[in-house]
Amino acid sequence: MVAKMSRIAVLFGGALLATTLGWTLLAGVKEGPGATPGGNWPQWRGPDRNSVSKETGLLKIWPEGGPPLVWKVTGLGSGVASVAVVGGRVFTLGKIDNDEHLTALDEVTGNKLWAVRIGPGMTGGVDTLMRWLSPRTPTVDGDRVFAVTARALLACVSTKDGTILWTKKYAEDFGGRTGAFGCGDRPLVDGDHLICTPGGAASSVVALDKKTGTVIWRCPLPGAPAAAYSATTVAEVGGIRHYVATLARGPVGIAAKDGRHLWGFEKLADPMSNYTPLVRGEHVFFATPRGKVMTQGQAMVKLIAEKDVVRVEEVWHKGLKLPSWHDGAILVGDHLYLGTGPDIYCVEWLTGNEVWKDPGAVGGAVSIATAEGLLYLLSQKSEAALIEATPKGYTLKGKLQLPDATAKPGATAPVIAAGRLYLRDDDRLFCYDIREGAAAKPGKALGQPEPKKLGASSAKALQPLKAPDEPDVVFVPTPQDVVDRMVEVAGIKPRERVCDLGCGDGRILVTAAQKHGCVAVGYDIDSECVRLARENAQQNGVGGLVKIEKCDLFTVDLHEADVVMLYLSPELNERLLPQLAKLKPGSRIVSHAFVIPGVPPDRIVTVSSTEDYIDHNVYVWTTPLKPVQAAK
C-alpha cells in the first residue's frame, strides 16, 4: 500500500531576490584565538560524498550529556537538508511559508549572513513524510553555491551575498522527469562542470558549465527513466572517469568526457532509491531501502574497463531491509556499517558477509558520519551517539539528546567540520565543539544570550500551476506490518473484490490475495508504479488474482468493490466521495494516515510499526458513509 499526495509541476515566475526571514539565534562563541573557521564539508556527505571526515584531534569520548554546545540557530525553515560548511560559511535549505530559501550563516558565530528565496516549495505529503527522501544539501564551489528545490529548480547563487547568478528548470530546460516525490538531486561539481540528474528522455544526466549553466553534454537513457533520490558520485577504472548516477531503473555509469552511457545495473532498480553509491577503486556498493520484497536490497559490483567501454559484474547481493528515510551506509576500513532500523550491521566490504549486528545506543534507524574511525549517529528521535565500531564490535563513547525534539520518520545527516559537529532538527541547527580538550561543562552552551528575533520574510508565495500531462499524485510506501493490519481490519472474505486506489508497488493487493484468496485490483496513473505492482504480484505467486490498471483514480467505477484501500491526502479523499458513495452497503473503506473530511470513521486503529518506528493511524468506515451533517 502506498500513499498518494498532490504532485504539481510548477511554472515558476516572479523575481528571485535575497530576503530576510524570521530568525532566532543563540550564540555561544566570539571570534578570537581558537575560533578560526576552516570547515571543509562543501556538499552532501562531505568532500568525497562518503560521509568521511579526514579531521583529527577530536574527542574520543564525550562528556556526560554530550560535547559542549557552541551555538544554536532557529528559523532555518522546515526541512531535512544537511549543511555544507566551507569558506567560513554554513549553507542549508529550508521552507518558510510556501517557499524554499537558501541560507548562509557565519561558521564561527552562527549569525545569519544572508538568505535568498529560491522558489516555491512542495505541499501535502511530499512536504512532510516524503521530504526525507530528498535531503537536498547545497553544493559549494568557490564563490558559488548550487541549490535545487523539490520542484526541480536549480539555482547558482553567489556565496558572498546571495545574489542569484543563473537558474535552470529541469522540466522546461532539459525535459526532466523527477521522481514521484519531487526532485532530490544534489548537483556534483567536477572541474568546470556541474553534473545534474534531471531524468527523462532527452537529458537523463546532463553536464553544465558551472559558471554559466550552458549545456556541455546531455545523456539520454532508454526508457526515459525518472530520477531517483540518490546522489551522483565519481568513479574511475582503466583511465575512464565516469559518474555513477541513480535513476528509477537502476544505477548507471556516464562518461565524464562526453556523456556516453557506459553501463547499467537494473537489478537494483528502485524509484525510491536514496542511498548514495559508495565507490572504492573498481568496486561500487549500491543500496535500496526495500530489501527482498522487490528483489532489490544491497549489492556490490566490480567495474571492468575494456578499451573505451566499462561493464559491471556483480560481486555480491543481499536483501537487508533498510530505513527509507536515511542514507545510513558508510565504509570504514574494509567494512561497511549499515543502519537497518533495529540494528547497526557490520558487513565485509568485498564479500557482503555479516560480521555482527547490534541495536546499540540509539537503534539502527540512523544517519551516519565518521571521523578518526569513530561513527557519529543521529536517530529519528534526535538522539546523537558517538560509537567505536570495528569488526570486533560496537562500543558506546558518548550520547546526547537534542532538547525539545520529537520523533520523526528520519534524521538529517550529521556533519563534521573544523572540529565541530552540526546536527539539524528541522527548523533548528545545533553546532557542538568536538575538539579534544573542549572545555565547556557537559551539555552546557558556551553562553546563551536572550534569543533575538529578526525580521520576517518579505518573500511573496507563488501559487503553483499544474503543468499539462503531469501525474497528479505521488506514492509513499506503507510499512508491511501496517499493511498486514489494514488487511486484517478490512475483514476481507474469499472471493471479495479489493480495490487499491493508488496501488504503488502493489504490496497491499499482494498481501490481501495471499492471505484471503480475494480478487485484488489496483489502479495507478504512474507507469513505473504499474510496472512494479505487476512484477510484485508475479514474483509472489498471485498474478492470477491481482490485476493492475493504469488509469486516473477519479475515473474508477467502485460499485462492485467490497473493500477500498486508501493512502491519500484528505483533499484527495474528499474528491473521491462521489465514487465512494456508489459502494454497496456493507463495503469497507480503510485509509492509512488520512481521514475523509466531514465523514467520521467508524473505527481508528493505531499500529506501532517495527519497520519505521512510527505510530500509524488506520481509519475504517463501513458503507453507507455517514457525513457529519447526516449524523446530526
Could you explain the architecture of this structure?
The chain is mainly beta and 632 residues long. It folds into 2 domains: 2-454, YVTN repeat-like/Quinoprotein amine dehydrogenase (Methylamine Dehydrogenase, Chain H, 7 Propeller); 478-631, Rossmann fold. The chain contains 7 helices and 46 strands. A 7-stranded mixed sheet has the order 42-41-40-43-44-46-45, covered by helices on one side. Strand 15 and strand 16 form a beta hairpin. Helix 2 packs across helix 3 (507-516). The longest helix has 13 residues, at 527-539. The two termini are 34 Å apart. Mean pLDDT is 84; it is low at 1-35 and 440-473.
Largest sheet: 7 strands, mixed
| Beta-strand residue fraction | 35-45%
Number of strand segments? 46
Shape: globular
As residue ranges, the low-confidence spans are 1-35, 440-473
Query: Distance between termini?
Result: 34 Å
**CATH hierarchy, class of the largest domain:** Mainly Beta
Based on the coordinates given, report the CATH architecture of the largest domain: 7 Propeller
Count structural domains.
2
Task: Find the structural class using helix and strand composition.
Answer: mainly beta
Features of the shown structure:
single chain; 632 residues; mainly beta; Methylamine Dehydrogenase, Chain H; Rossmann fold; 2 domains; 7-stranded mixed beta sheet; 6-stranded antiparallel beta sheet; 46 strands; disordered N terminus
Gist?
The chain has 632 residues and is mainly beta. It is built from seven helices and 46 strands.
